[in-house]
Design brief:
Number of strands: 25
Structural class: mainly beta
Number of helices: 0
Distance between the termini: 92 Å
CATH class of the largest domain: Mainly Beta
Number of domains: 3
Shape: rod-shaped
CATH topology of the largest domain: Histone H3 K4-specific methyltransferase SET7/9 N-terminal domain
Radius of gyration: 33 Å
Helix content: under 10%
CATH superfamily of the largest domain: Histone H3 K4-specific methyltransferase SET7/9 N-terminal domain
Order of helices and strands: EEEEEEEEEEEEEEEEEEEEEEEEE
Amino acid sequence: MGRKKINGHYQQISGDFKNGVYQGGLGLIPLKDGWYEGGLNGFLTPHGQGERTYTSGHTLAGEFVNGIYTGGKGVIKFKDGTYQGDLNDSLQPHGEGISRDKNGNSFRGEFTNGVPSGSGFLKRADGSTFSGNFYGEKYMGGDGHIKYSDGSIYDGKVNAYFKPHGYGRTYAGSVMNPTAYVSGTYKNGAFIGGNGNKKYPDGFEYTGILDVNGQPDGKGVFERSENSLYDSKSITLFGVFKGRKAIGDASLTYKFRDNVYEFVGPVNSKFNPNGYGKERVNGGEWKYVTLKGSDFNK
C-alpha cells in the first residue's frame, strides 16, 4: 500500500533512531489543516526551529517546544486583513511587523501584544501617510503626508487627530516641483498665518507675513526667476503687501542677462513701476521719474 499524501505533502523525517525508535531530528509532517517542516521530537511533534503552514494561509516560523509555538515570525490572516512579522506565543503581533486591512490601509512598525505601540508608519488607501509614535493603537502625532479630495497635498507636522499641526506646506503638483503652495504654521488643521511662504501658478514666490487664508498681509518679498540656455531674467520686489498689491512704495529690482534695473516707488498689480519714484540702471546714479505702468514684468 503506498504512502498517503495529505495537503500535497508526504511525511518525510530524518534523524536518529535507537532500536527502531525515532529519537527526533528534522522532517516534513502533513497535518489535517496544513503541514509542518522543521525540528521534531521523538513523537514526530514540532520541536525546535520550524515553520507551520495552515491551509487557511497562516504561517508560523520560529521556536516550537513539544508542539507548542513559543514565538517568532509569521503571517496571520484575520477577517479584515493580514499581518506579517514578529509574533508572541499567543500568536499576536509582537515586535516589528506590517498589518494590512481589506480597505488598503497598512501599518508598519512596532506592536505589543497585538496592537501598534511605539514608532510606526501608517499608510492610508488614498496615499496619505503618517509617521510617529503610537501608544495602545492611538497615534501620538508626528509627520504627515495628507492627500485631499481637491488634489492638494499637505506635508508637515500633524497632531494625534491626523490634522496639520505645526510647521507644514500645502501644495498642488508634485512634491519636487509644486505649481503652487503655502507653507507656514498650522493649528488643529487650520493655517494660522504669520511668517511663511507662498508660490503662485505664474511662478512668483512670496516670503513674508501671511494672513489666515494664506495671503500676503504685511512686509515681504516677491521673487521670480527664469533661466534658459541663452537668457536669464529675474524680478524681486520688497514692500508691504495686501494680497498681491503693494501698499505704498516698494523696491523693485529687475535683472536681464547682465543688466540690472532698480526702481523705488509705487508699482501696479503686475509689479511694474507706476508713479513718481526713483530709478537707476546698472548701479548708476538715481534719477527721479514718473512712470505709468512700464512693463518690465513680462
